[in-house]
Amino acid sequence: DIQMTQSPSSLSASVGDRVTITCRASQGISNYLAWYQQKPGKVPKLLIYAASTLQSGVPSRFSGSGSGTDFTLTISSLQPEDVATYYCQKYNSAPLFGGGTKVEIK
Amino acid sequence: QVQLVQSGAEVKKPGSSVKVSCKASGGTFSSYAISWVRQAPGQGLEWMGGIIPIFGTANYAQKFQGRVTITADESTSTAYMELSSLRSEDTAVYYCARGRLRFLVEGNYFDYWGQGTLVTVSS
Fold first, then answer.
1. What is the per-residue DSSP string for chain B?
2. What is the pLDDT of residues A61-91, one digit of tens each?
3. pLDDT at residue number B37
4. CA distances from B48 to A6, B59, B64 (A)
5. Which residue, A67, A104, A3, A89, is CA-closest to B47?
6. Is A52 a residue whose pLDDT tops 90?
7. What residues are paired with B111 via a beta bridge?
8. In this predicted model, what pLDDT tens digit does every residue of B45-96 receive, in sequence order?
9. In B, which residues are within 8 Å of A94 by CB distance?
10. Of A93, B81, B107, B109, whose CB has the highest number of CB atoms within 10 Å?
11. Using 50, 70 and 90 to split pLDDT, how confident is the model at B27?
12. Which among A36, A44, A91 is the nearest to B107, CB-wise?
């Protein structure tokens, strides 16, 4: 079975910092990867699909890259409203989420 | 604008079953999969299975095979998830979510989510 591993599990950064979250698949999944943002107490929100395509309405400071087994989500300039847990999800077959990365403000 | 509205919180005894509903509005219901994703307290997201209403057959995650039943009623644009033989580890928020790609359950990601339904399993 494919495993999805996110790192780090949590991070703390200052407003304006560049933040990078990594998602690794144990087998190649081409670009069948989505990223979600879940703010505390809220519903998950789709940010990126097809590894790098920004969902409509998502701020351009969010970007995604990668293909095969290694993927990244980058926030180019962290804002206070970006405090959330971020999940990757593969969808080449049965959907599977990564364990999540909790982002906090330093 | 697509909206998914779920039924309210439930408290269940171990060994019993729970059935959660998800009513869709504002978009095409029949050709987009509705999946169920759960989140235990303080934990991550876990896909349980999904259904394309126009086809009526569901796909389930291996972990939940035999214990979960997902159905859909096209006439009311409502999907249902029934989980049986409940145990304390099933305490979680259960979300319905619409697949972005038409006619696909498994090869899909999710663009609209319900508000979540808390199911508490306790004796």
1. --EEEE---EEE-TT--EEEEEEEESS--TTEEEEEEEE-TT---EEEEEE-TTT--EEE-GGGTTTEEEEEETTTTEEEEEE-S--GGG-EEEEEEEEEEET-SSS--EEEE---EEEEE--
2. 999 999 999 999 999 999 999 999 999 999 9
3. 98
4. 20, 9, 6
5. A89
6. yes
7. none
8. 999 999 999 999 999 999 999 999 999 999 999 999 999 999 999 999 999 9
9. 47, 59, 61-62, 106
10. B81
11. confident
12. A91
The one-character DSSP state at A75 is E
The percent of residues in chain A predicted with pLDDT above 90, rounded, is 99
Query: What is the SS3 assignment for A81?
Result: helix
Query: What is the spatial distance between Cα B105 and Cα A41, in angstroms, rounded to a whole number?
Result: 27
Dihedral of CA atoms B33, B63, B23, B39 in degrees, nearest 10, equals: -110
Q: Encoding tokens for residue B13?
A: 């005894």
Residues of A in contact with B109 (CB under 8 A): 34, 46, 49, 89, 91, 95
Largest Cα span, chain A:
38
Query: Average pLDDT of chain B?
Result: 96
pLDDT at A64: 98
Touching A: B residues 42-61, CB under 8 Å: 44-47, 59, 61
Phi first, then psi, for residue B107 (nearest 5°) are: -85, 55
Whether A91 sits inside 8 A of B106 (CB atoms) is: yes
CA distance A52 to A77: 17
